[in-house]
Amino acid sequence: MKYVLVTGGVVSGLGKGVTASSIGVLLKACGLRVTSIKIDPYLNTDAGTMSPFEHGEVFVLDDGGEVDLDLGNYERFLDTTLTRDNNITTGKIYQVVPHITDAIQEWIERVAMVPVDGKEGPADVCVIELGGTIGDIESMPFIEALGQFSYRVGPGNFCLIHVSLVPVLNVVGEQKTKPTQHSVRGLRGLGLTPNILACRSTKALDENVKAKLAQFCHVPAENIVTLHDVPNIWHIPLLLRDQKAHEAILKGLNLLGVAREPDLKEWTARTRICDKLHDSVRIAMVGKYTGLSDAYLSVLKALLHASVACRRKLIVDWVAAGDLEDATAKEAPDVHKAAWDLLKGADGVLVPGGFGDRGVQGKILAAKYARENKVPFLGICLGMQIAVIEFARSVLNLHDANSTEFDPDTKNPCVIFMPEGSKTHMGGTMRLGSRRTYFKVADCKSAKLYGSVSFVDERHRHRYEVNPDMVSQLENAGLSFVGRDETDRRMEIVELPTHPYFVGVQFHPEFKSRPGKPSATFLGLIAAACGSLAMVIQSNGHVGKTHSNGISNGHSTAKIHQNGNVFRSSNGSNGSVNGVYSNGNGNGNGVHW
Predict the structure, then answer these.
(1) Active-site position among 510, 530, 547, 592
(2) Where would I find the Glutamine amidotransferase domain in this sequence (predicted)?
(3) Which one, of 25, 47, 2, 249, lies nearest residue 117 by Cα?
């Protein structure tokens, strides 16, 4: 087994996750099998109970692992299926054994041997990302363990790539190397020596700057690569290839005679396609955490995959759910009007998952607007429950219909707690991970978008479900619960047959959306918003000439790539970096591609 370690210096938010994922893409293009490990040096055992405002979204794996969002990047870039053990945290390690550094090394070696690409036998290379920044006190046990590990596995089996910042001072326009010099010095002082420097900057490094870095960081100039700002993050593997980063990595791992030249023809074609998108599709994202787009990162990626499949440039209008409510109309009428203007100007409406009752009424109003005005709508997890509650209130005239999560004493509980865990203990108690959904209605939009399969496996993260005792009443009024679990008691997919596209799913389809395989439900939303749903359904979830391989695990195989996208917010919060993301990704801090 060969190991590539990616560390970061100077500041956080440089894009270590994208760099690690891109390195994986490059090595995979060289014919190598790649697995990934993310080390998060926080005391929590997992990301399940962390606030989305602090840590971004919680990414859910097939085995129910609640992990860092970077594992979502790994899965999307490399099209792999990781496990909870691919995310190491301080909390997990300290639960195991007092000999902390030994435990970390043993964990890495054990997980690296587990195949994640559906093939037998271990991967050729394991890419390890160390979260945080060199010098963080919480990272020290992991840095010590990795220093010991690099010595133990020996030269030719370990390659360290250090991602650092080379800022440009606007006053003089000069690229400054001192921050990277100090970062590398700190890294060396901790027992780790970088083989490659990956330098983030606004533009390509000047040759004299590379020479200076080589001299003071003791890294060959040919091993110093620039990760400068690009139109979209799909350029990053191409940047690495063009600077022959693969040769430096393969040389350091003694794999030059084993690997082939990287084949990135398809990747290059995708990048060019997404750069040229002009016609837009506008989606209103009605949520609770609209101030930080990373809270909905996988949802954004799934929208991107689907929008590019439909050859549209995605525009996301961030609508804070609370801004739609009557209380806001009284307190801040301008904010209320701006939110409704965004909602009414959208081609489609998406209500993502969430917890707690803040903004619920605004989400109900959004679902009502989409239903009554025939605007394409997709509700995910809580979003599906919201759609059911709104239908019960408006169509069945059950004005106090609600979820017992928000009103335990409601007389018309449309959504109830259905235990796979405890009501009182947070974390690890939810219905988590991959579960099977069976289509009960073959002639429905969702089934056709999934390729007319009889069942699909999707990932879940929730505690509450549609009340099975109210299903017949709801269906008699026009709703159709077209997808259910094997017991027929858990409602997984709901549709409104008389609506152009009004779909709710209890699961989280965004977690399995891939650049080449957009989520069926997201594809349906975007296609409906573009006016092309009938064509997509007629072709069993395919779009245009780019779909040639049918359906794989419930997802259409469009050739898709994400592009630079515009994100607007209704409440004045900056839902983007300087208004426009060059990569459709807003971490809210640091420097972004």
Answers:
(1) 510
(2) 293-526
(3) 25
